[in-house]
Structure formats: structure tokens, C-alpha cells
Amino acid sequence: MAILVAGGAGYIGSHMVDRLIEKGQDVVVVDNLSTGHRAAVHEKARFYQGDTRDKAFLTTVFKQEKIDGVIHMDAFSLVGESMTDPLKYFDNNIYGMIVLLEVMKEQGVKYMVFSSTAATYGEPENELITETDRQEPINPYGESKLAMERMIRWADEAYGIKFVALRYFNAAGAKADGSIGEDHHPETHLIPIILQVAAGQRAELQIFGDDYKTPDGTNVRDYVHVLDLADAHMLALEYLQAGNPSQAFNLGSSTGFSNKQMLEAARKVTGKAIPAKIAPRRGGDPDSLVADSQKARKVLGWQPQYDDVEDIIRTAWAWKQSHPQGYGDK
Ligand code: NAD
């Protein structure tokens, strides 16, 4: 039986596929390469280029392969873009999920691990966000992911498709050997942007605001290494295959890092000056966003290997140095 990674050519998806293959799993990838990279997909995975909204295409893949479970990582995920083009997000993310669930139902596939997002919570109610906190997204991206979570819950009720939704903030880092890594266009994530400055591809880092209610005044965010995320998805699938009930889990470091701390850590790891300046607040940035992941640690037995942010940055730097232009295909 194979595991289908939808979005397996993307940043997190490619690490997911790599990890599954390392563990001896049979892996099928579906990806339309809209933001992903063919070169990121492990050569041992069977790759099908196509769109999850294309039911005929997806049905062919499911008929050709014996799929036991689906790991869903194919969504658009740029918050800013979702604000200016919300329908693009609802079409790709929500409609894509409808078609995928339909095909799973028709082909009798019972397990889905869904890469959701902590953006489904919106403005945090508490310092550490727990799974039972209010979910009130403040952008269309988070809204689309919340709708997808709810859709799977009803698909479970009606068709018995068991799911785990994993809610996390910032995926970070890369495989330690630098062979795969993060290559987004445009790049909106902090670590790759800092490393672009370190590599001389960007003049300086802009830190948006230093008067937030945090110890050094800059925003505090949660970073999880991409391979720790992959492990959590694997554990979640095993949890479902063992007959456990559907539910959502947060994935996080449980200790956030401020933008200034990230900058200092990157300066240390790279040995570069990394010029930075404080710019005005962007608006819409909560002081601090950190997820409590005790439940995932307890119930799934998840134990992140990368708990030091310098180690995370070191892996991202290894990728940056070996692939200064990313995969070079966009
Ligand atoms: P990514 O853009 O690198 O990967 C998404 C992949 O899905 C790409 O390869 C893209 O080509 C593919 N894809 C998109 N729509 C598709 C469609 N309709 N049909 C087929 N393929 C399609 O993004 P990422 O950073 O790897 O994120 C992966 C998932 O994790 C997303 O669902 C995202 O919402 C979620 N997530 C990411 C982060 C993060 O920090 N990167 C945080 C929380 C959640």
C-alpha cells in the first residue's frame, strides 16, 4: 500500500516524501507544480503531475495506485495574496479538498492527515494557543483552512474518512545535507529572507515594528523544523491506522523567538553582518504567536529533534549555500 502526498513537490511536501522514503514507505506524489518543484521530489516516489481539482486525473491516480492514506499539503498559503485575491484561495484550497474527499470516498480510502494551519485561530486568546481555543481566522487563507478542517469532520461523520488536522505556524529549516529546501516565489518567510541578506541577494532585513508587547519589542513567532513536521504527519497517519479517533493537534516549539532573536541567531550561524533596520508596523501582526503542542507530544508521541533555533537556521543555511538560486526553475 502506498501513501499519497498531495503537494509533495512543495517545501514541506518534499521533506515529507523524503522522510517517508527513508522509513521504507511506498510514496505517490500528486502536484501541479504551481508553487512546487519537480526536482524536489525524491526519485523513488512515483510522481503524477496534475491538479487535485481535476477529478478525472485524481481518480486515475487512485485507480492506478493502491493508496492507503493521504497526506494533504497542496494548498496556497500566502496570507497577503489571500487578502487581495480571496477567491483564488477558496477555489484552490476548498474546492481541491472537496474533489480529494470525493475521490477518497469513491475509492474507499479512509485516512487523511491534513496540514492545516495555526492561522485558523486568528488573534490568539491566550499566550500559548491550545487546540480548544476559539478559531476565528483574520484572513482568507486561514478561513479556507478552517473550512477544510470542518469539511473533513463532516466527511468523517458521513463516510468514515478518519483525519488528523495538524495546526502549525512557521515551518523552517531544510534537510541537513542541503539537498532539498525552501524555495518560494515570492519569499515571505523570515528565515529565507534573512539568509538572502546573508548571501548578499537582498540589501537588508526589514523588521516591522519594535514596539510590540514582547521582551525586545519585536514580534515573537513559533518555528518548527520541517523534518519534525514530517515526523508528526507520519505519527498522525500511524495513529489513524491504529484505529484512533479523528482530531486536531497543534505542532509548535512551545517557545517562540522574536524577530531580533532570529536575526542574532542567523548572524551567529552564518558569520555575516546581516544589515537590518526597523520599519513601521505592517498592521495585522499579533504581538506573539506560539502554539502549545503538549497534546501532540502526549497523544502522538511527537518529539521534535530540532529544539534549538540555531540548528534550524544552520540547515536552512546549508541549503542556501548549496542552492543560492533555489531549484532554479521559477
Ligand atoms: P508550497 O507552496 O511549497 O507547497 C504546496 C504544494 O502544493 C506545491 O508543490 C504546489 O505546486 C502544490 N499545489 C498547490 N495547489 C495544488 C493543486 N490544486 N493541485 C496539485 N498541487 C497543488 O507550500 P508549503 O510551505 O510546503 O506548505 C504546504 C502546506 O502546509 C500548505 O497546505 C500550507 O498551508 C501548510 N502550512 C505551511 C506552513 C509554512 O510555514 N510553510 C505553515 C502552516 C501550514
From TrEMBL:
<keyword id="KW-0119">Carbohydrate metabolism</keyword>
<keyword id="KW-0520">NAD</keyword>
<dbReference type="InterPro" id="IPR001509">
    <property type="entry name" value="Epimerase_deHydtase"/>
</dbReference>
<keyword id="KW-0413">Isomerase</keyword>
<comment type="subunit">
    <text>Homodimer.</text>
</comment>
<protein>
    <recommendedName>
        <fullName>UDP-glucose 4-epimerase</fullName>
        <ecNumber>5.1.3.2</ecNumber>
    </recommendedName>
</protein>
<feature type="domain" description="NAD-dependent epimerase/dehydratase">
    <location>
        <begin position="3"/>
        <end position="252"/>
    </location>
</feature>
<dbReference type="InterPro" id="IPR036291">
    <property type="entry name" value="NAD(P)-bd_dom_sf"/>
</dbReference>
<keyword id="KW-0299">Galactose metabolism</keyword>
<comment type="similarity">
    <text>Belongs to the NAD(P)-dependent epimerase/dehydratase family.</text>
</comment>
<dbReference type="Pfam" id="PF01370">
    <property type="entry name" value="Epimerase"/>
</dbReference>
<dbReference type="InterPro" id="IPR005886">
    <property type="entry name" value="UDP_G4E"/>
</dbReference>
<dbReference type="GO" id="GO:0003978">
    <property type="term" value="F:UDP-glucose 4-epimerase activity"/>
</dbReference>
<comment type="pathway">
    <text>Carbohydrate metabolism; galactose metabolism.</text>
</comment>
